[in-house]
Amino acid sequence: MSSHTDQLSPYLSNIDALTIRQDRSLPDASLQLWDLPSKKLSCFYAPFEYVNIDAKLIIVGITPGRTQMNRSINALKQALANGHSPEQALESVKQNASLSGTMRPRLVEMLNRLGYAEKLGITCCSSLWAEHNDLVHFCSVLKYPIFVSGKDYCGQPNLFKVPQLRYLLFEQFVRDIQSIQPDAHIVPLGEMVADVLNHLDPDNHLPHHLPRFGGRVIGPPHPSGANAESISLVLMDRYPSLSVYQESMYQQYLGKQSWLRKPGGQPQDEDKYIKARATRWYAMSRVRQAYDL
Q: Comparing 1 with 214, which gets the higher pLDDT?
């Protein structure tokens, strides 16, 4: 039995007893690894053990969200029902459940724009979930699903200040990633992941290629719907000047009149709105420069 299946084994009977999960199904109590009421944190098992040590590309998220957790359970049950060995089933989980849902097409578009299809010698990065799955390793800095008050963990509380989260980072993520060949390229999804890798990098935990600008690890935006503006900035063929971008976005904002959806709603203060656009513009400018866009 491999180390991957060693970790899975204690949870197999509980997973087998579960019915098919919906994307928004609540975590099942039988798979809870720990609960930390003082921090409103809870951690649940999901079968994300498989590590592709021959990967050329390592895509790193924060933690598996509820959708990925439920799809990983379904994928494992289906693979085992189809006669696959536990090791084969775990590999199938990574291919089918990693970064699944509506975020995957956005991620594929960004990876292509950032040049990874060309680096890997493939036509499109969508094949990383299909015929070229052998080229990629999908993972998270927190290997198992973490929830804060029942919602997906998004960086708070700071993982370095919570011993249980630090354990997941150093004893799971770092251990796994160090087993992957050092010539692989890491793609950190979002600023929070990039900040974690910046913390690990000076201590030589990461021998792999990392996107950098100004001496710091830089990550493209996480492909969630909340980051649509940042993703759009990365995908642009020609980057607008800051002033042009601010004016264009503000005029679009006024045209949509989204504040009317709320009773008594008022348009956002113009100075506050354009300041927020500047923050996004500068952040994505650093991403584009890190990738020579």
A: 214
Q: Which two tokens stand for residue 61?
A: 């998220």
Backbone angles phi, psi at 58, to 5 degrees: -120, 115
Q: Exposed, middle or buried, 140 (CB in 10 Å: 0-12/13-18/19+)?
A: buried
Cα end-to-end span (Å), the chain: 46
In whole angstroms, what is the distance from residue 175 CA to residue 139 CA? 12
Interval 208-249: pLDDT, tens = 999 999 999 999 999 988 899 999 999 999 999 999 999 999
Per-position DSSP letters for 86-106, written without gaps between them: HHHHHHHHHHHHTT-TTHHHH
Q: 77 φ, ψ to 5°?
A: -60, -40
Q: Chain centroid to CA 12: how far?
A: 25
**pLDDT tens figures, 75-113:** 999 999 999 999 999 999 988 888 877 889 999 999 999
Task: Reply yes or no: is the peptide bond before residue 223 cis, omega within 30 of 0.
Answer: no
Fill in the DSSP letter of residue 174: I
Q: What amino acid occupies position 61?
A: G
* 53 HSE (CA, 13 A, CB side): 5
The residue extents of the domains of the chain are 3-220, 236-290
106-157 pLDDT per residue, tens: 999 999 999 999 999 999 999 999 999 999 999 999 999 999 999 999 999 9
Provide the 10 A C-beta neighbour count for residue 275: 11
By residue count, the chain amounts to: 293
Single pTM value for the model: 0.93
**Distance set, CA 87 to CA 4, 6, 36, 92, 93 (Å):** 7, 10, 31, 9, 10
CB 111 within 8 A of CB 117: yes
> What is the rounded CA–CA span in Å between residue 8 and residue 141?
19
